[in-house]
User: Fold these one by one.
Assistant:
Number 1:
Amino acid sequence: MTRALLRLYTLKVKLHLSMLALTFYGVQCQATPAKITLVTENLPPYQIIGKNNHDISGFAYDIVKETFKRSKINYSLAAYPWVRSYKLSLNNPNTCIFSIARIPIREAKYTWIGQITEKNNAVVWGLKTNKHSQQIQTLDDLKKYVIAVNQDDVTHLGMLKNGFKEGKHLYLLQNTNSLINLLVTRSEIDFIIADDITISYRADLAGVDINLLQRVLEIDNLPLDFYLACNKKTDKKVIATLTDKLAEIHQDGTYLKILAHWKNKMPRLK
């Protein structure tokens, strides 16, 4: 074999080996699920965020943590105000969010993994000193007043669907922790919308005595059934695995065990 032919043969072998290596690498990449960014907010007792986003706990967090543990999917977790977490999950592939209410207006925006909390409805709350509370019998009665809701939260979107208007009936705020403070400190705010389970935690965070508040109206068509959901462009293998493992948690009794652990911290749970 001449030197020229030998060099050509050697070049072909190297090229072939390089192609094999690239093919193997591509297969390996496809077989490895993407790393997931998991976002949430501070919403006790569902997810309780400690200082500097450390020492995270909560009923929903325990369910989600167990789901990812069983799925063996690599993820990072960050907590932000709801508006930011919501936007991050909508705009970024391979990003999942909890605890998010599953309502018609959001149905097509996410891939829904599964339910992670008990069923619960939104509730209108007011101060016991508010004499208008006795006049509220239906949702339409509330249209005479100003109600504070968290921006892009299920209560905000649900009230829009019920015919309430921003700036007229609804006052929007971005910080969940400010909701009860607003009711107490701003005379122009007549009512707020929260739920039976989180209301006492919200009061504690605001430094407000829960006994100052009264339950005005339960909104039956505004359920707060919280889910784990992912951006529509999340790795399909991740979606399939998370869905399967969360269903397994419900089926094998793990969900009920975690619920039992937290139930005494949710005194208003029906």
Number 2:
Amino acid sequence: MHRKRSAPLFTLALAAVACGDPAIPNAPSATSANDARPAATLGPSPMGPSIPIDVKPIVTGLVSPIQLVQAPGANGLRYVIDQVGLIRVIDEANHLLPQPFLDVRGKITALSPGYDERGLLGLAFHPEFARNGRFFVFYTAPPRATAPEGYNNTTTIAEYRADGERKVVADPMSERIVLQVDHPQSNHNGGTLAFGPDGYLYISIGDGGGANDTPLGHVPDWYAFNAGGNGQDIEANLLGNILRIDVRGTPYSVPMDNPYVGKAGLDEIWAYGFRNPYRFSFDMGGSHSLLVGDAGQELWEEVSEVMKGGNYGWNVKEGTHCFDAAAPTVSPASCPSVDPTTGQVLRDPVIEFANSKQTGGLAVTVVGGNVYRGKEVPALAGLYVYGGAAASFTSPDGRLFASMPQSGLWPIQELLIHGTDRLGYVVKGFGQDRRGEVYVAATKALGPTGTSGTIFMLMRDRGQ
């Protein structure tokens, strides 16, 4: 591992809902080194016409599915992350195999059935999985004995192995801990893992939980106006970041072309300034863009196209708008446009929508998805498919969206079943198979409870 010796040894954690926050110091003046500027006026993304689709239930009876992943190689199996601690297998005939691929229920934190952001959250197969059987998971374990007092859980990245030609069952005794983080709050756990086209493992890390980067576990940063800022700090911890590591090392190493190798900032960091990058994905085609859905706090949800070393604004900004932690429902007239510690411009998202706290808002939070590269739904070719979890915290009325990449903010088009209906489920995640087809992971319950969990495949609307 390559870490800056001047910073404490930290590891991981992520974000998605908000709570209150106290007083904040005075804002910097427009002539300060923070380079204050007028608030952006880009958002929200324009709404385009809806797109008619159909959906096909592939499997049912899950508890809280949050992602579908297909392993590389000839294996035709698809693997589903169930938040309660199970990875389930769907075979080529769309049958859910009775035996879990992996069971980590005994390792994760006890989950609240009403609502919880913890659990088993991420899965990534090694690019040579067909040969070496290696795969990686992201889960939240109970606090370690060495954790600071009051911390809630330990975010854990672990490697496992699966043997045999079919690889339908992993070896539970093969666990090797790669990376752990003492995580301060119960929320904002995020948790996507994915191997990039460069063969390195990318990990999304949230800002540590709670609102405004100020509760237990947050650190001071350069932006005094919003005191506390794991999202804007890159030296004290790994919170609020996208990481990039090389799992060929023990337990891992850092690629030497990571942006903060040899300079201020922790070596693992690829990009920073996130609140809760809960789900991200790489485009299978095109330029293989890294697209990250980042949950907002009070007003705005966003998706960003992430570049090496980029700063994505939280908690200086929420989406394209300036953010005030002391008055989060009112966007300030100005805020910095540049991080003075790194010289990085604060990058705006490519998609922004109003959340349900605003009149006419689309959903309580964004759920990142995948660029459609399949053949089943020609109308979606090249569009980024994503979702809104639900319209409120009491209704299973999630929404499906698609956006075509363009300059500026990408227009939003809603995906409606037969051109008229929404899914009628809480949208919890997405997935993609090797053919480029896209799946939706959804339930009737907001929390990890019941057996309404369903994997849907997006289909062409045959009536159109």
Number 3:
Amino acid sequence: MTDSSVIAFPADHPALAGHFPDNPLVPGAVLLDHVIAVVAECEGCRVSGIRSAKFLRPLRAGESCRLQIGRRADGALKITCSTDAAKVMTAILECTTEKRAARE
């Protein structure tokens, strides 16, 4: 199974102001945080661990990337973020589903 969605950070995103003036880049932590939120929504799970995360090239303000989510045989999620030109980030995330207690 592979799900995908598009991620973009507008030029006025608050995290970009200090990274870097006149050449805004999306900080890796901000990208990873956004990916985790999208994974939770798309997969209906909670990310419980990050096995690996590799940032391969900068993502610039206004540049979009495609997030692809695949499930590995061991249950972990394989994440790839790519622009048209190249991969931006790869990650392996652990994900758990939480059953909600029924209200009586």
